[in-house]
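Subject: Sanity check before I submit

Could someone independently write out the structure tokens for this chain? I want to compare against mine line by line before I put it in a report. The sequence has 373 residues.
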Amino acid sequence: MLHIYRQITALGRVRPIVIAQKREAAERFPFDAVTVLPKPATHFLRRIWYRQLKDAPWQISRGETARLLGILAAERAELLHIYFGHIAVHLLPLIERWAKPTVVSFHGADVMVDLEKPAYRSATVRMLDAVRLVLVRSESLGDALVRLGCAPDKIRIQRTGIPLHEFEFRPRSWPIDGSWRFVQAGRLIEKKGLRTTLEAFAAFAREHRSAQLTIAGEGPLLGELQEMAQRLGVGGRVSFVGFASQAELRALFYQSHMFLHPSETGPDGNQEGVPNAMLEAMASGLPVFATTHGGIPEAVQDGVSGVLVPERDADALAQRLLEMAARPEALSTMAERGAEAVAEKFEQRAQVRKLEECYFEAMTGRLRASANA
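---
Independent answer below. Compare away.
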């Protein structure tokens, strides 16, 4: 994932090494210190045994644990950072056998999924007890983990870092002929609220016939969303462009007038932390229209640095879009405040420095008392 790659490669006061089960797109993400430890041949059967027979999250075997311990010893590792809470549950045998500190970071989808199952909840609590620090991308994720049973003094806010030099703020010129250009970027999955996007856009387009919507991303909802756009009568004005590189995404942002991201909680409990694409859009000068979901209100103040509406409320979203389209000066001010909010809270260098401080804190064993430190 790009946001993880950015974080790892920006570290300056520690030497990172990466252990992964496989490596993809190495030309896009160049990094030398990678050890690939493939899944064992028995992984599929082991996973079935855990999930279907034990109804519990699968965990790595003794052999895998030994191999990972060997890699950590050979690299003289002083700290283990596991990305995503559910991965840390799978690696619990390693965490409990390794004598040095472990840090786990939660990003959103890995907090509440499957936790209605007692075995999954128990394993997650056990993992949270075993690690030294728990990093979360938003205060809302931290609150959810405290409710789950995580010790508050372990939690640190570690926000997404946005490289502002890659998303330079550019003022937009607002159309006077109704040819508004909207964009949404992200995986085509339930929590991104794409059905709400299409419904709200269709309502907006009834008053602004030249409006266009571009949806960038891939995912399982593509076919359904294409059919929905046709059914709503906006099939010719909605473009599904698939995966967009960073350069393509930046160009799309600068060609657009408003960014939509009406996130919602998925049926499996899947939630957002603070969406990366939304922050990048804000940094570039795009006014953001989103929802009071997950960590989004920690980045967007309604009516000041963006617009927030309730989850799944397409009518409210359409109404706010129409209101702001009629107030171009207010839209410009909102865009400026949005970019300022990203620079203040999510600038990459500052966030990487905070991550390094978390590493040093975990290695010394002296935990600070504040969960918002």
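---
OP: Matches mine. For the report I'm noting this point. The CA atoms of residues 57 and 183 lie 37 Å apart.
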